[in-house]
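REQUEST
  id: r-88c1
  op: predict_structure
  target: eEF1A lysine and N-terminal methyltransferase
  payload:
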Amino acid sequence: MELLPRSPAEFGSARYWDRFFRQRGQRPFEWYGAFPELCPVLHKYVRPRDKVLVVGCGNSELSEQLYDLGVCEDIVNIDISDAVIRQMRERSAGTRPRMSYLLMDMLHMDFPDAHFQVVLDKGTLDALLTDEEEATLAKVDQMFAEISRVLQVGGRYLCVSLAQAHVLKKAVEYFSQESWVVRVHQVASSGDEQQFVLPVFVYVMTKFRKIPGSAARILEICHEEQDKPMRVQSAEQLVAAVKNRQHYALLCSQISKTPCREQVSLDLCDKESGKPRYTLHLVDSPSVKPSRDNHFAIFIIPQGRETEWLFGTEEGRRQLAASAGFGRLLTVSLHREQHYQGMAGIQAELSGKVMELAPPGLPARQQVPFLSVGGDIGVRAVRHCASSPLSGDFVVEDVKGDGTCYFRRLIFLQNRNVVQSEARLLAPTPLPGQKKRRKDKKKASPTEPSGAIDKSYLCCEHHKAMVAGLCLLGGPDALPGELTVLVVGLGGGSLPLFVHDYFLQARVAVVEIDPSMLEVATRWFGFSQGDRMQVHVCDGLDYVAKLAAEGTPHRAFQGLHQAQVVPHWYDAVMFDVDSKDLTVGMSCPPPAFVEKPFLQKVKNILKPEGVFVLNLVCRDARLKESVLGTLRAVFPLLYSRHIQGEVNEILFCQLGPTGRREPSELGARARALEGALRQPGRPWDSSYVLADMLQAVHII
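RESPONSE
  id: r-88c1
  status: 200
  body:
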């Protein structure tokens, strides 16, 4: 039996609806939104004494249920189908004396002005606004004008809808321009598997007198029935908020039926501020043999550890899920701008929401475990927040790592999942949220630094590899004598600091384009300048170009005496500079730094036996191959060292192929260099083995 229209235009045809209801018979037809789901919203906006008009009533039970449950009795129902009006009159005859059914077109109603307090529409607008053709939009305008005419000031137009973008936008723009207050409610789902996948919404348009010259619009969204309305600034924002809820509903429907082949990620936002509060990653492990107790688990990532490989990469999370032994693992990252009430508070907050992401086959009333590392949510203390015209918003924060170590990090918030710079702290004082084992005799000042910087420790693996590459420098001695090094990109300063402190005759010039970074490195990361360390605040492109153009000795260190002139070429040039353009598939360095004309200038400031060290972070395979080709065209000898578990690849570039060294020789030189650097009385990180950093080096 065919009940659906041949074309959307038939939704506005009385003939179609007569045929539809004759074929369907007495069975009620509910497009969507059963009464138990709609009731909480309707109770807020329909009062017992209200006079209610239901437009396009069909044979829905909604009016009958409103009447029978005492929500409201003075209800007038209209429809263009004579068949359904006769059917509904028969159904209510003798049982609902105050409710009436009239054959009437809602585009041309016979009621006087301001006759109703409520107009109720369940799916009628959706049925009418099937496209955005001029004729259709004209009908919708007429519908809205008639609803506005018959409603009293202070009256409410309640529209139950699936909220397609063009339908919602049309309603919001029309009524907000008339100075009506517009609020959109999401209807709570009943959990019925037979219902629509898309969530149901109720638009609540409240009529106010139009004030000439007033441009103020009140637009609100209420995600769940107990929520406070959230104000938005435009119709576009309201449509976007609804679209996010629809996408989430589709996602929940999809992952509740079938396992996910790819990892799924989403943000759960704070209701007040709209900012992300939790970031969820859903990982399914098909290889895990299912049992009653291993279907689903939640893993809370301790604060500050979300950037670690195990938690911050797809492969890491895949290994975490497999080792945890659950068919579906949901990892939860906590955001630095948010405050959390411990593990118990997080569990209480997330319990209802995460069950919407449960896997298929989860037994009823199954307890879902919350897992973590060490049983707590970690420690994060934001030490400094600022903004720079060049780097954007950034923070300096102290976090607790694995075990008892604490680390200080620089994070650029435009790429908040990447640690820009990191340093280990020595003997930190207790951070907020950390339990004290004993009473301190003296309270620490809240502004007191949490510990000195451990300058012997290189946190970043790519920095370790870059330093190890200095063993490529020629000469019989393991430790070069006088060494001139140019570092482009300061960050927290750990790389130039290490070279300065362990190569005691090295003179280091650092180029940093952002003066804010020099301030951050000095105040928060223990960086300082001196006779052998000088920072130049300028563009690295300009600085290198200037040196290459001079071709004569220059004074690289302003603090040196007149006679101490540094040559314009360097033993080592190191590029560790990030790109601010996130649209390019290469986040380090900016593309201009690896163009052939500029690389020729780098070559011109490098000593013949020197080494150019480049930190390359490129996810675009074609772009990466192009960069490598350009480097090979300028530097005949090219070594590569991929950083395991990261995108970083360290490239060591030299001018002469005659200086090529085999892996065994590199290992020997690295061991000799480490022996020279590790001197009695000077701290050394025992986990840092230079030879290990060069084991995976290969020549391109």
